[in-house]
Amino acid sequence: MEEELKSFVKVWVSAIISVSYCYYIPSKIKSGVHRLLSVLPVCVLFLVLPLFFVFTIFSSTTAFCLSLLANFKLILFAFDKGPLLPLPTNLFRFICFTCLPIKLQKNPNSQNHPPKWVFFSKAAIFGVLLNVHNYKSLLPPILLICLYPLHLYLVLDVLLTIVNALLTIILGCDLEPHFNEPYLATSLQDFWGHRWNLMVPAIFRPGVYSPVSSVCQHQMRSDWARFMGCLTTFFVSGLIHELVYFYINRETPTWEVTWFFVLHGVCTAMEKAVKRKIRWSLSPMLSRLITVGFLVVTGDFLFFRQIERSNMLERRANEASLFIDFVKRKVFN
């Protein structure tokens, strides 16, 4: 554990130094190819940094924050796009908005935040789930199918909400929420575009969807261009998730996760096309059941099988125990 924490400090100090360079040097270069070339070494470094970890919690967190979000933010920044513009007023803010999964909320009063009891309810359910995993072999298959997506959602929502709350106080500004009650999604478009991990679509929309759609519009009809933009976005998302899995497991990709996102890309694009042609809609309750059911079933077959095979949740539980024991030894001995 001690060596892992040393690696954590070294990796994130390297990241902070690299982002500081981006704040002082590339920001002074004219946007475009030249600025992109100036940030590319940092992007390459951010792809390497997760490999310095053994613990899954450190490798996955670093991969998500640096290899995925920070890299896309810096590439968009090179072309005067994305969440790093307008340029933050000081270096500390630039580091936070680059390295951490946060985005400035432009219209703080435009969204209704859920009441606090909702968050505490989620935290309580998450605490129960941590113990349920010890009895996984006793659970019926139908509950196991729901266990992994629920665990993934709660751990991300609870932890990122806490991070957002702390950074809101530190930075003195309102930040975008990461989730918008995804279990209430009435369609795949609603789920992926407006409810799930909102930091990612905020980056993929200008970074992948818009450029691909714009290029394709010169070669095909606008509806097919939008289809290609949507499919490419989901394909890129699948590749990035494969990369994150590689950082965690250090095994050859199985491409199941990529197929999961390709499937959802095709289905989302078809869903949007059908909505434009057909004006009637299902009841919200039925739409939610179909949407969440489709997500859970396809996730079980394509997304979570790799997590299950690698015993990722069990490994994280062991890592948490090791960390707690390490803290106890340092504090009480």
Describe the protein's architecture and organization:
- It is a multi-pass membrane protein.
- Belongs to the wax synthase family.
- The chain crosses the membrane at residues 32-55, 227-248, 286-304.
- Catalyzes the final step in the synthesis of long-chain linear esters (waxes).
- Pfam families: MBOAT_2.
- This protein has 333 residues and is an all-alpha fold.
- The protein has 3 domains: 2-103; 112-175; 177-333, no CATH class.
- 72% of the residues lie in helices and 0% in strands.
- The chain contains 13 helices and no strands.
- It has helices spanning 2-24, 33-48, 56-78, 91-99, 116-132, 141-171, 188-194, 199-216, 222-249, 256-277, 284-303, 305-309, 312-332.
- Helix 1 packs across helix 4 and helix 10 packs antiparallel against helix 11.
- The radius of gyration is 21 Å and the shape is globular.
- The two termini are 16 Å apart.
- The relative contact order is 0.09.
In short:
The protein is mostly helical. 72% of the residues lie in helices and 0% in strands.
Low-pLDDT windows of residues: none
The gyration radius over C-alpha positions equals 21 Å
Overall mean confidence score, pLDDT: 88
Strand content: under 5%
Percent helix among the residues?
A: over 70%
H/E topology pattern: HHHHHHHHHHHHH
Structural class: mainly alpha
Give the count of helical stretches.
13
Instruction: Please tally the β strands and state the result.
Output: 0
Report how far the terminal alpha carbons are from each other.
Answer: 16 Å
Shape: globular
Largest sheet geometry: none
Assembly state (oligomeric): single chain
For the record, the count of structural domains works out to 3
Pfam family, one: MBOAT_2
EC number: 2.3.1.75
Main location: membrane
Enzyme class: transferase
